[in-house]
Amino acid sequence: MFGAVRGVKRPRPFAPWRIVVWLVMLLAAVGLVINTYASVILAKAVGAVSAEAIAAGAGDPRIGMMWSLAYALAAFVVVAVALGTLRWREWGRRAMRVVALVLLAWSAYTAWGAFDQWRQLGVVLTQQGLPAELLATGEKHRTILLVGLLLKAVSVPVLGWLSWALGTVRVRQQFGYVPL
């Protein structure tokens, strides 16, 4: 009946920035799933913890639930922006530059905190007279902190490069204006 009109097919060269956008999207999707599940668990805990227990010093699950919901919402936004970028939408490219810079700042900030925890845990574990089980658990936790710290240290320049690459003329020219 009505024939579909296709625009001019533009060849797009290999773009390494697309790999980084895929990784950001996949990690955000994992964070979305984990924090959505945590929100469900914490929502069940809201009804289980009484106001008296919270007043007596028990943790308030509403705070954890709000944090998980906010994280899940932010992860959803990152997934949507990454998908827009991967679909060659100009709004996605612009938003992904901002997202990359926000993630860069967040990664640097949390890496600084992880480094401080790693250093403090090292001081605690050098004390004499610690039980062997506590020492083993502390060393395992310290190793996990170090791995996370190294991954964050790698992600900072990669996210900076992504934000820069998405702003270069060569990449901007690949994103034609496509109306929604």
What's the N-to-C terminus distance?
A: 24 Å
Structural class: mainly alpha
Strand content range: under 5%
Q: Could you name the ranges where pLDDT drops below 50 across 5 or more consecutive residues?
A: none
How large is the radius of gyration?
Answer: 22 Å
The portion of residues assigned to helices is over 70%
The residue-averaged pLDDT reads 89
Shape: flat
Major sheet characteristics: none
Tally the helices: what do you get?
6
Number of strands: 0
Q: Report the order of strands and helices.
A: HHHHHH
Describe this structure in words.
The chain has 180 residues and is mostly helical. 79% of the residues lie in helices and 0% in strands. The longest helix is centred in the middle third of the chain and has 36 residues. The protein is flat. The two termini are 24 Å apart. The mean pLDDT is 89.
Structure summarized in a few sentences:
The protein has 180 residues and is an all-alpha fold.
Descriptive keywords:
mainly alpha, flat
How is the secondary structure organized here?
Elements: H1 16-48, H2 51-55, H3 61-86, H4 90-125, H5 132-167, H6 169-174
